[in-house]
Specification:
Its EC number is 3.2.2.27. It is built from nine helices and six strands. The protein is α/β, with parallel strands linked by helices and about 220 residues long. α7 links the parallel β5 and β6.
Length: about 220
């Protein structure tokens, strides 16, 4: 089965594409996009993979669901298109980076530059129906993205996983922490951040220190 995804991911993921659950998932997604407005645009569903290849992968950030507002989602977790107002979680991410690294708050919420530097911005569910958060959950996406994490865990070394909030932290069971680096904190959403579970985690400077220690280029977060 042919999936439109960056060629270098196919040797890792083709086994998943050929499984019955994934074929059912594709049929579901095609039907949803044909009959409802869904996000992100069809050609951006695998954007996270198309801008971060297995060769340059060094950091994984795990989100849950794409944004379900018009024009927001672009296939990378927490990221929005240029010119779109920053959602609350993204505002708090940028505030933490600014405080952590002493950088000024950015204008664009498009995180594609992170992906191009080797940050996989992976939502657990890659599609959503407009205005209906979680509407494409439990259709097979979670099985696929768990398989992605498992493949990365088995085939790479020294990857930095940034797990924010309870949902992302559950993925620790898929990661061998003796072979990779796992940083956890509260979620950047206002509910969690305002309770003191987000600000001050210094994940961005910590991640860069880990990368430099491995003779990898640090990420230019802003």
């Amino acid at each position: 089965m042919e999936v439109e995804i960056e060629e270098r991911w196919k040797p890792l993921l083709q086994e998943e594409f050929d499984k019955p659950y994934f074929k059912s998932l594709v049929a579901f997604v095609k039907k949803e996009y044909a009959n409802h407005e869904c996000f992100p645009p069809g050609n951006q569903i695998f954007n996270a993979f198309n801008h971060c290849t297995p060769d340059n992968l060094k950091v994984v950030i795990i989100g849950q669901d794409p944004y379900h507002g018009f024009g927001q989602a672009n296939g990378m977790c927490f990221s929005v298109n240029d010119g779109v107002p920053h959602p609350p979680s993204l505002v708090n991410i940028f505030k933490e980076i600014s405080n952590d690294l002493g950088k000024s708050y950015p204008k664009s919420g498009n995180l594609m530059p992170w992906a191009d530097q080797g940050v996989l911005l992976l939502n657990a569910t890659l599609t959503v129906r407009a205005g209906q958060a979680g509407s494409h959950q439990n259709q097979g996406w979670e099985q696929f993205t768990d398989a992605v994490i498992t493949k990365i865990n088995k085939t790479k070394t020294g990857i930095v996983f940034l797990l924010w909030g309870g949902y992302a932290k559950k993925k620790t069971k898929l990661i061998d922490s003796s072979n990779h680096y796992v940083l956890t904190s509260g979620h950047p959403s206002p509910l969690s951040a305002n309770r003191g579970y987000w600000f001050g985690n210094k994940h961005f400077s910590q991640a860069n220190k880990i990368l430099v220690k491995q003779n990898k280029l640090p990420v230019k977060w802003l």
